Amino acid sequence: MIYNYLMIRFGELSTKGKNKKDFIRQLSRNISSVLKDFPNTQIETKYDHIYVKLNDKKYEDILKTLQEVSGIHSISLVLRTDDDIENIKAKSLEIISSNEGKTFKVYAKRANKTYPIISDNIIREVAGHILKNTSLKVDVHNPDILLTIEIRNEGAYIFTKTFKGAGGYPLGCGGKIMHMLSGGIDSPVAAYLLMKRGISIECIHYASPPYTNIGVIDKLKDLLRKLNKYQASIRLNIVPFTRLQEEIYAHCDESYAITIMRRMMYRLASEVAKRRNCKAISNGESVGQVASQTLESMYTINDVTNMPVIRPVVCLDKEEIINIARRIDTFEISIRPYEDCCTIFAPKNPKTRPSLEKSKELENTFDYEALIKDALNNIEVIHISRDDQDLF
Asked: What is the pTM assigned to this prediction?
């Protein structure tokens, strides 16, 4: 194989100034974690790039794994070689001859300013050598092949292939959040978008047996295994919600049932978040999608907590959310016919503009605080890990 390294670029991390080294250190740790299945690779962390030495391993699977790591802007398949100009010319010819196309352009960057040949002269030398030894033509505007040469302290990097990364920030740099995971299409997508921004997730789910099928828990596990591509281990807190729901429907107007139910969920999520040192709660709400997701409903429901509530898909339409779900491979799992407590107990005519005062009045008709305390004392915890072991 011609190539011997993958060159990883940071993207948004370049704006982090004095904190950049902390972000790079976290990204390097995350890369080391996902490359455990490729034990012969070596990682070199530098200020501008991270390099993965392939050691004659095929790059395709390694590249695919790295493309799922948040914080990586792009990845180039490169040859690191001696920076002698004659060697650069010979290796450039070898690399460009392995590409398909009729036209080419050479781009050179001299990051090592002590290198005696300026970038323009590197381009002339290499392009001239290629023109003499191939049938390729130069096209500086729209070439079939862009050959890039970067001169750095450790040698010359030559490449033609660059692949897009996940972008965002390294997982773990943005703190931890308590994510409300329903099992539908939206909440796994929201979880993915949070992780892409460097936020670690812990999940909370509200179970209402016997009204909800046990299959919904298996559905959640399968969703989290898909999300393990982005976070190696995810804790799932399963909160018993049956008694709360029964009391809500026994004491509240049906049209307010979803509003009161969501207020209880926010109370529970906030308390579990505090216990688990999460700095915010999050969910898959999208404005206007259902009755509990109008601005008026969000205002009334949000009143029960002063903890920040993050809604990553709030302004996405359903088609946009579905497209992301398909891309991260959660869609087919999300549409399995196991309903959560919200859909099982959905009223026929829910309030889209619920009154805060009316909501409080209805809640005062039963002892919800005792029920919340009981639910918090009976949480079941499951850890879903990348190694496919569920830890209880």
From this structure: 0.88
